[in-house]
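Example 421, ligand pyridoxal-5'-phosphate.
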Amino acid sequence: MASYIDSSLHQIDPQIAKLLEGEYERQTKTLVMIPSENYASRAVLQTMGSILTNKYAEGYPSERYYNGCAYYDMGENLAKERARKLFKAEHVNVQPHTGSSANMAAYYAILEIGDTVLGMSTEHGGHLTHGKNLNFSGKWYDYHSYGVSKKDERLDYDEIREIAKKVKPKLIVCGASAYPRIIDFEIFKSIADEVGAYLMSDVAHIIGLIAAGEHPDPVPHSHIVTSTTHKTLRGPRGAIIMCKRELAEAVDRAVFPGTQAGPLMHQIAAKAVCFREAQSFGFKEYQRQIIKNAAILAETLMERGFRLTTGGTDNHLMMIDLSDKGLNGRDAADMLEEAGIAANKNSIPFDTRPPAITSGVRFGTPALTTRGMKEEEMRLIGGWISDVLSNPKNQDLRMKTRACIEELCEQFPIYLDILNW
Ligand SMILES: *Cc1c(COP(=O)(O)O)cnc(C)c1O
């Protein structure tokens, strides 16, 4: 394996250099199918690993608490402008360090401690920051949950409306980490209007699809939209908050000085790069292919006798229900890892197993699609997943599968140009 890191790191810190090389090899030789993961472009990586990490720039463009921020102002303004254009948002804050900090700031902007919030239950696909009892959101707010219906495992908007009428939340949060279907922001807005609540859409997972016009747009219907930039958007680890003009000041003050101090300006400049990449025609094609790939993978798995929750997928991810296979999610994910496939165990709706074990495995296609894999490869991969999960006692098969996967990976290299850094 050719080294892609500067030789100086080998001299200064051989342990970390070795670790980077090992991880490069893992990312190269295995199938990354965790739906929240992706390969950021070389341009994004370069910006992240730049001298922009050296400086403090507390505050906002033209209102910094430190001198010498001219280039930082330019970078942050570019990021804001590009995001505003890409999503047609009235206001964007590009400083949140990550998705959870964006959600914390969004809550801080409109809620007081103890206020009532309604969001999607984490057991049914909601995020940790949507009221999980171990998370600040569950501790500081009076958080209530809606889930999916037992009948088809989809959001039941009539039921959500009934719960909203009962608990009278100040804020309704929609969006999920493990929901394979379209989310109807328009209905969520009508429910929020009916009970006089704010609507916040957390689209961390599907933001890339939204940017490409391949998923309904939350921006017109939401008071606040939060998102990560490192999942389907394929940018640096980080997040943004978009909001209506009247909330702009509250949101900005909630990020700084409310919940963060010095912004990560190297990450913010890299966000600007990813917004530019997302405006390209190739990006739209990329997002379309993610969805096509997910549909073919889902079809292949179902043909091989696996039940997917909700019976399939509309987006970039899917979940296999293993309850009738005598296998749990943890063991399945471990077996897949042994075979060279990185997927994660995930609770399925109404799961009878605890979160550390689960009855589901979650798969996504964003990272494979970045490598250039298409329908044909999805059929191959779906077949391999089925073989491995249908023969849990066969370690030899996992080893053989791993060899096939390494061969496939060789045809779809990552960072071809990485040696030219
Ligand atoms: C990933 C995700 C987040 C943010 O997570 P971080 O790990 O803090 O970046 C927030 N909300 C949802 C729905 C997510 O899927």
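Summary: The radius of gyration is 22 Å.
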